[in-house]
Specification:
The protein is mostly beta strands and 135 residues long. It has one domain: Immunoglobulins (Immunoglobulin-like). Strands 2, 4, 5, 8, 9 and 10 form a six-stranded mixed β-sheet that branches. A four-stranded antiparallel β-sheet has the order 1-3-7-6, with no helix packed on it. The termini are far apart. The mean pLDDT is 88.
């Protein structure tokens, strides 16, 4: 009986120390991610009904998994990371079939929380739009 009391007391002390040291479950909210910025589109326009082309997006703070958005639609499989300052995206001819304007943005995806303490990761961040013209 004395051994059971000692085991129970020891276990209770370990649990109390573990919780006091911060090993309980903590949920940290995600923090702001890196905000991408677009400085130039090349080309900045296309002819309606024209051929498919590659759009080069120049700017800053592009993450390795950044995605170019065409009027808000992520071009996930068509975006290629070139550098932290440049992305390229394949634009099929069907996307420029009619004249008008298109809003181009870049999104750096968020990252999940990781680690022993469950850090909250980062939020996805999307650049201000730049206008692409279809003549």
């Amino acid at each position: 009986m004395k051994i059971n009391v000692l085991k129970t007391t020891s276990l209770a002390a370990l649990i109390a120390l573990t919780l006091a040291c911060g090993y309980g479950s903590k949920n940290y909210p995600p923090v702001a991610g890196t905000m991408p910025a677009i400085s130039q589109l090349n080309p900045d326009s296309a002819t309606a009904g024209g051929d498919a082309f590659t759009l080069t997006v120049n700017g800053s703070n592009f993450g390795t998994k950044a995605v170019v958005n065409w009027n808000g639609a992520a071009q996930t499989s068509a975006t290629t990371y070139v550098s932290g300052n440049q992305l390229s995206v394949a634009i099929p001819s069907g996307m420029i079939a009619a004249s008008g304007t298109v809003q181009i943005t870049v999104t750096n995806p968020g990252t999940p929380g990781t680690g022993m303490y469950g850090s909250g990761g980062t939020l996805a961040e999307t650049s201000a739009p730049m206008t692409f013209t279809i003549n």
